[in-house]
Structure formats: C-alpha cells, structure tokens
Design a protein that fits this description.
Elements (H helix, E strand, L loop, with lengths): L1 H14 L4 H7 L1 H21 L3 H18 L8 H28 L6 H39 L7 H8 L18
Length: 183
C-alpha cells in the first residue's frame, strides 16, 4: 500500500503528464476498492466469524493487483489502470484492517495492546521494505529503458541537439545541424 501510494503519484505525473491534484484524483479507484472491501469484508467477518478465506483471497488479490501494476506503460488505457488499482485496493482492503480485527478477536484482553501494536509495527516495517524494493526496481528499470530508448537516437533538430547538451541557451558547436558550416 505504501509503495503504490508513493509511486502511483509519480507514474501519473511523470508518465501521464498529470498535475499533482489530478494524480491524487486518479488514485480514487484504488481507494474505493480498499474502502469498499474493508467495510464489506469486515462486516462479513464480524457477522459470521470466519476470516481465513477472506484473508487468503485478499492476499491473492493484492498479489494479482501488484503483478498487474508491473505491466503499466505510459500509454496504458486509464480504464485498465483503474481496474488494476481497484483490484489492488480491494485486496489491501480485505487484508489491512481485517488483520487487526482478527488479531484483536484472537488475543486475550490483557495482551490486546501489545498485539495491536505488533501488527502496526510490522506493517510499518513491511511498508518501508516495500517502498525500498519498489524504488530500487523502478530506478533500475528506468535506467535500462532510458538507455535502450536513446541507443539508436540521433538528434536531427536544433532543439534535440540542445536538449542533449543540457542547455537551451547556446547553439550547438559540434555539428552542422544547428548552424551551417563556416565558409
């Protein structure tokens, strides 16, 4: 959950050109899935007392949603991205709060505080590890894709030449594309 919250915003802003506000609004399908599943499955667990199947299903949906998110490109249809986000959100909603509910229901009252704090502690540690792993994967994939994308690139316009040189102020001095050769 933490990693997708961090990197979805970057995806929407950098790959899709959204503003920060639009980026936040574009994550609504994931939040709706998470909120809806959390409420619905929490009510079902409280009503019937069975939780194991919901937790396993939630873990599988989370895994499926995460795998689907790895297939995103800059031009993936937003409807498809929404389905992927909803799937991930529903899986997280089934697991996150209901895990706390299960721990609280299966723990003696005298140890309730310790059990709840352990759930939150390990959730925070796992979130940190998840953000770190996804960040390193993103960095290595962006580096590889950038190198592959520029491998066969030859600048043909003055803007492309200047952009590659890192300056838009001075004209290129190394080729004849930007300025004609001296006579």
């Amino acid at each position: 959950m933490f990693a997708t919250s961090v990197f979805l915003a970057q995806y929407f802003q950098l790959a899709r050109g959204a503003t920060p506000t639009e980026s936040g609004l574009m994550t609504i399908p994931m939040i709706v899935g998470q909120m809806g599943a959390s409420i619905l499955i929490g009510a079902l667990i409280s009503r019937f007392g069975r939780w194991k199947g919901f937790m396993v299903l939630g873990a599988l949906l989370t895994l499926a949603g995460t795998i689907l998110m790895t297939t995103l490109t800059y031009d993936t249809d937003f409807a498809l991205v929404s389905v992927y986000m909803f799937t991930l959100g529903a899986g997280l909603g089934m697991v996150m709060q209901n895990l706390t509910l299960v721990v609280q229901n299966d723990t003696p009252v005298s140890q309730l505080g310790a059990a709840s704090s352990n759930v939150n502690f390990f959730r925070s540690i796992a979130g940190t590890i998840g953000v770190t792993i996804m960040g390193s994967q993103l960095a290595s994939r962006v580096t590889a894709h950038t190198a592959d994308g520029f491998a066969d690139f030859t600048p043909t316009t003055p803007d492309e030449v200047e952009a590659l040189q890192g300056s838009l102020a001075a004209p290129c001095r190394t080729c004849t594309t930007c300025r004609p050769p001296s006579a």
